[in-house]
Write a sequence for this structure.
């Protein structure tokens, strides 16, 4: 059960509500987010929901049968929109495009990519500065200095930055330079990181685990939301299966399932979803036509020279073409 | 290596070619299909390809590095088209739609479905009369008499029939009533059935195994082709993974991979691919935008009353809407 | 629900029972096996079980909540024993060992393997003559003549033969030469083959599908049993997962689960279960200690020269050592 | 390539070696562990290994073709032993048993479990105080105070503690009370945590990811080793597959593969490996007979009342019986 408190709910009213709920043997989590105060109640008591709805200070009550609560569409039917400022909105009527290199490499690289984004009217730059790598001997990113440089270059153009955070201790230093924090697939169940991201006021995109279930992804989002941050995005990026013909099996079913179960925006990552350049563009279109609120993909002036993930990175020409097709489809209103 | 023989290659010429190939230690399979005579040569000998190309009676020679040969795009770059007659062509410029109930139930049901197909200009009816079921106690289909009835009803309208064959002994009795034989996921590696279907002159659509690899699907097609039948379609219908939020994980990546590796038409089955009615239509569109040559889906007047698979079956209204969207997308030329 | 009829149940009594069951809206399958007559009733009616138990001609009634019925331990608590004659019993107190080459190759090979089996007191020879192969160009077995030769060589020694049957049409010709028919992983849901094997009086071992669930394996056994053959063995042979460090992921959990859910003997195939020779012996021991009723493994005088599966085949010395260890463990009574 | 430096290698000698290696275009990681100084060299240069081996200060040089280096058996053939003090050694000739509750609950619980461990001569207590849980609303452990209490109770008996660490910031406060840090399956690729654990001098056991490959597990261990901590244990705890009959698919093949590829001790976790109490004991025996250096399992006085994981926890009687069987098998020397 989720109880929404009124904006001007007094402390006394809240205490009275809590005490009534405790008498019903509920385990209660108090959640204060950017846009509201909630009481999440876990338990199996029988009760008359009207008795709660009529309590002073209570604005609304919802029974949520899902195991995750705050991220469920069962209490919040309207889709969540995330506003990054400068009219950059995720989860609205038009698909969001996020593009950029796997890793930040140099200022020159950034300048070129910005030009490419501007040309295609893309408002969100992706680019890693902290890179999770299977091997300790691989390139692990340009670090915080790289991020500062990204910010310096993108800011004058109103372009927003999404980049991966790998550990709690990075959050604070990254804060001023990041518009959306990305939690990578390998950290999808790093609960301490999720807790910490629940305490900030910046959007967070959570990637599905390498073999995470859809329910686990929603639970991970619930971690962040229940700590107070409801600016959340979910990302499908492919799962691990027996098939070895490509890097990951993109789970296109997950897009529709997530959209039905949750009110949060859903982003598709076709680059990781298949891992092979030639297949990325069509996979992006297929994701959007399935109802994704946006796509995040890798693009680089010369993919074959990229430090990482070049094999799944579009070049500028391919990216131009993809955006033309997206615009064509937008024009005929099939993304609904 | 695949050697194409000339139409008028004489027996003597062929013998000379075979004897030369044997001298190179090749293991040779002679294949005679509806449209040509081939020698498939397996081996690792070093040789000058021109020596073979110049042999009398040889029309062309191709090195094919894939393990499957005849179904590979490495020797036949042009996509295969399957002509079912009455201008019903699969694999051409326009997506093929195959629709109908999971199981044939009654003549009345057939009449209604035919009306629905005609309304939407759908030329191929799907409908099972032999049903593979996990449990021996479940409904196993209307059998050959049902198939005869289907034929009687569809024929006057020029509508073609695709239906599943489960065993060798059914092929002959089904022949007069079937336009495309379907090999189901559970029979995807029933090699005796594949061998037998290689000896007939009717198109065969092979579904990917429940956890079959893409390569295994191509090998299964190679079985049929190498026995003499090159009228083949491949079908992606979802694979088995750890995710339990839906019936199967539709492997949308497979469509592009199959189109790149093989010259055979690729059909998507969104009904089995997700197993939940509400998600079928968008999955069909996503498949087509990924490059599928067609879709096969389940439709029924009253899905909730269908004998089998009702939970993944569209009703007529949903099917109408799907076809409108397909037509809209065809009009803007995104299926290419 | 399973109803066991008395041996001397009269036709009139049976008809009365059937008619009573039909009045309860049950769907009934009559099953006549080597050891009894059963009525398998599917339905959700409410009724007093005593009313059925007291009917003339009824010997026993069991409610079976599993979806599979006849193979369930819920009605037959005692483990099934399969007697192959000559005191060769599977499913009794002592583990059964089945060993031999992947494929039958020559008479000389057979003579050597027989000597090896006799030395180790192994009573069941495995050896394929019909081989399912992914590629149509691979070796597909020595065929029926090979099987006849196997029989000729083993019979004087009281050694029994287990070998794979691939299609319905082979059953009859194989009958005189086979002691246990094996259904391979790829045919695990070839329902027509299972039906046909249900109509013979010879033991059948069904391998789990390449990604078959435990429940599907039990259903496949139910197919055979419900057609009249209750001489059944189940075989765990590894499943397909994301891991590529070995051929299959041996599902050791399945052994205990199958033993709990079913009364049928469970055999482990460590050769296919891991696919790497060095790991086969320990995997065999681990299977037996988990409760398997036996193991089936590949052994060859010179594995590196075997026509197929050499990489997972033990040589004679390794096989000797494995049997010594099995005997050591038998002596301390850990296989219980 | 791994270069071992001599204990008394001088700075000048080391610099000379480094400079020679750089001239060969190697990328070098300097590693200083508890027992040695290593240079891990990544690169593809051609060179004469003797030229390196003969450099002053160099004690040994090994070419390691695996992608992971320091954890590979290719340079260190002898198995690693981890000495926890008080003669508690992991990786020696006798299997290590680690047992205890999923979560620490109370002092009374601890007293009872200690009595049980002493009775069975078990030297290592497992017990979680920081619990990773899918849902933010679930019990998340007794925390550091719980750990202190565990230490107080176990220390007088010479019993060692293994417990899970979830984030970098916990390491320091946990240090005085922990004998082996456990990295859980969900943190298996939390690279920052692995880095931090590489900088301490306490043993670390890394669990395989929920669908981590064997290679990824070895890479995760390489992270820790390459930062300076070579006191490492690997743990197989089951993987995620399509099968839903139990919690995880225990990958018994992995034990033998890990033992062959790495010199590190391998521990099996049969409790998580199957997730069902009745199957845990046999799975423990099967793991040991496959070559595991030890087992870690859950035991509780009253599993049905345990705060977490009760369904996979043995009671004292079952645990006694398991240890009797382990002792019986030790006596006949099958664990080798």
């Amino acid at each position: 059960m989720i109880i929404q408190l009124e904006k001007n709910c007094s402390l006394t009213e809240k205490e009275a509500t809590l005490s009534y709920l405790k008498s019903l043997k509920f385990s209660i989590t108090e959640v204060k987010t950017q846009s509201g105060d909630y009481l999440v109640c876990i338990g199996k008591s029988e009760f008359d929901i009207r008795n709660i709805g009529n309590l002073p200070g209570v604005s609304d009550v919802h029974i949520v049968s899902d195991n995750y609560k705050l991220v469920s569409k069962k209490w919040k039917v309207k889709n969540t929109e995330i506003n990054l400022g400068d009219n950059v909105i995720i989860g609205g009527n038009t698909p969001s495009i996020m593009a950029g290199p796997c890793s930040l490499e140099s200022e020159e690289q950034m300048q070129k990519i910005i030009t490419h984004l501007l040309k295609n009217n893309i408002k969100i730059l992706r680019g890693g500065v902290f890179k999770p790598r299977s091997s300790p001997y691989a390139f692990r990113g340009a670090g915080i200095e790289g991020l500062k440089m990204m910010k310096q270059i993108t800011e004058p153009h109103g372009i927003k930055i999404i980049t991966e955070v790998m550990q709690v201790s990075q959050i604070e230093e990254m804060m001023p330079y990041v518009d959306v924090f990305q939690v990578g697939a390998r950290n999808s169940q790093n609960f301490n990181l999720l807790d910490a991201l629940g305490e900030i006021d910046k959007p967070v995109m959570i990637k599905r685990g390498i073999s995470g279930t859809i329910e686990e992804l929603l639970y991970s989002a619930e971690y962040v939301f229940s700590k107070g941050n409801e600016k959340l995005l979910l990302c499908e990026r492919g799962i691990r299966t027996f098939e070895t013909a490509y890097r990951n099996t993109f789970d296109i079913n997950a897009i529709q399932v997530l959209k039905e179960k949750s009110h949060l925006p859903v982003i598709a990552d076709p680059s990781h979803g298949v891992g092979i350049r030639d297949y990325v563009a069509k996979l992006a279109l297929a994701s959007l036509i399935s109802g994704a609120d946006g796509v995040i993909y890798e693009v680089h002036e010369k993919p074959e020279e990229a430090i990482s993930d070049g094999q799944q990175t579009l070049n500028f020409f391919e990216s131009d073409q993809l955006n033309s097709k997206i615009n064509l489809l937008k024009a005929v209103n099939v993304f609904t």
